[in-house]
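Final report, section 2: Outcomes. Of the targets proposed, NTPase is the one most frequently requested by collaborating groups, and we therefore present its record in full.
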Amino acid sequence: MWADKETPDDLLGFKVHADLIVDVIKDNDVLPVTIGVFGDWGSGKSSILKMVEKELIGNDKDGFKDGTLVLYFNGWVFEGYDDAKAALLESIIEKFNKHKTLGSKVKHETLKLLKSVKWMRLMGLGFKKIAVPAATAYLTGGISLIPYLLNEFSQIEPAELANKLRGEEAENFLSSIIKKNEDEEITMVREFRDDFKMMLDKSNIEKLVVIIDDLDRCTPDRLIENLEAIKLFLNVEKTAFVIGADPRIVRHAIELRYKTDGIENSSDVESRNERIVSDYLEKLIQVPYYLPKLTDNEVETYLSLLFCQKELGGDFKKVLEAFHSTRENNRYDVFGLGDVDSILKQEEKSKLTNSVSIIASLAPIITEGLKGNPRQIKRFLNTYSLRDRLVRVAKISDFKMDILAKLMVLEYSSQSLFRQIYEWQSSQKGEPKEVVELELFASKNNTEKIKEKYSADWSSDKVIRWLNTEPKLSGMDLRDYYWITRDQLTTSISGSSLISPHIRLLVKKLIEPVSGSALNRTVNNEIKDKLSEGDYETLISLLEKELIKSPEITEIHEAFIELMAENFPNVIDAYIRVIKKIDNDKIPFSLAQNFKLIEAKNSGVEKIYNVFSKGSSIYNNINSER
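The predicted structure is given below as tokens.
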């Protein structure tokens, strides 16, 4: 099994990206700078950030080397804090305060800054959520920092002030004071930046590097709080911020916080929101850097190194060194098991013998099905390894692991087709004639015949390549292979461990829209022509699961109906599958009108009507008008 966590060991040939980021940080002429390391979920951002940290500080436990202080901050760790912005600021200041050599130099400045952060937290949190003793402590410690609060409080009788701070209107009371003194608040932010700069100067460090990871795991509010904290340090000399995130999640959070609404033309509103998001990111991120997806050769190399890591243990170090040495002169070709043959002992080679053929067969279909995503590849292999163990524990003879791997790729990338093969083989003693015919048509690239006899889903380029990839399934008894994956026929590996936060976010927006128009905007602006086939399949699968779990929730049905109205593929079949599984009496009868409204856009919805259970309210409501 392989651990799903970031690593400073470079198995992807990504050190070149880390070296580039380090080179920018070391260029004093570009400081202060904020660098965005952008990539999809699981693309290797965290590993690159760990490499950057290691390159800057080596093995120094205090994060301080050659005049550079490095703080690695995981935004997701502070997800449960009341104020993630304050958590980030406090972490940076505490790094100075508790440092064994820097702390004594800046003791006064850190204490002053920490008081400022407490005030910022207080203003964001509100008095009503803080115990009176804590509020009193904040007031006592921070009076000199915010003079206008002292002035306001001095005009109120002590007893009345105490009541205001304890009462239900405490938060509104504090907010009203702050709003009346917005110029003072701006002054406070400016003073914080000046105090922070003074701390850096007194510490005598050459630069501060703050690495912020996992922002895309945070809720939108927490993500924005972290970004707002970073904005406090913009233009502070000697600082470099390196942020790792999925840009789609970041853009959504910014749009959610700062979006504009109105009754004017919706396209104007969307355009304005897009400008707001772009302007925000451009002001915050001076150097955006997008990570590339792995190529076919890089996927095969990654697989080879993962299997070497698993089988060789401590001896893997020499394989990794050989890989890095080879990559200095050759960045393009596969680094495979043949490249390490000369440095391995015979017993080490024996451990890898079974892996050689598996890697060769896995590489092309994994590249196609998992889109060159390192995390998905590693989680795929972990599921594959568990099933390999199950095969051995169950003592299944004549089981071909490359057949299992091929089916697993289809299971992830096209769940509806994976289920269809299951249905075919279950009624034909494991050897479906449809698969034989599909492989024959695919070998001749006869997509028209496939469309005519099966469906357009089987004729896509991705599926044709899958059908043509070795090993072929014709003549294979698939019963054992589907028995091994039977636990996944309803949940699927992509429905559990391989789903990106972006797809989860889209599902949430579909089933929890803020308005009817928001649902339409999500479908047309974020799904239509925006998702790969695999991501779309995953999204539909998640919607199915949500509806099976909660058939009484109108919004989930409406998400399906909106997709039907826009003629998305497979959505009607998916909806019918769910109807057959759930208690139809729980389906809101008012949905009948929704279906009637979209008939003109998609006549295919009519085949849904007779699938509803006879006697159910939705069935009666629809058919009474026909």
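Confidence is low (pLDDT under 50) at residues 125-148, 181-186, 489-497.
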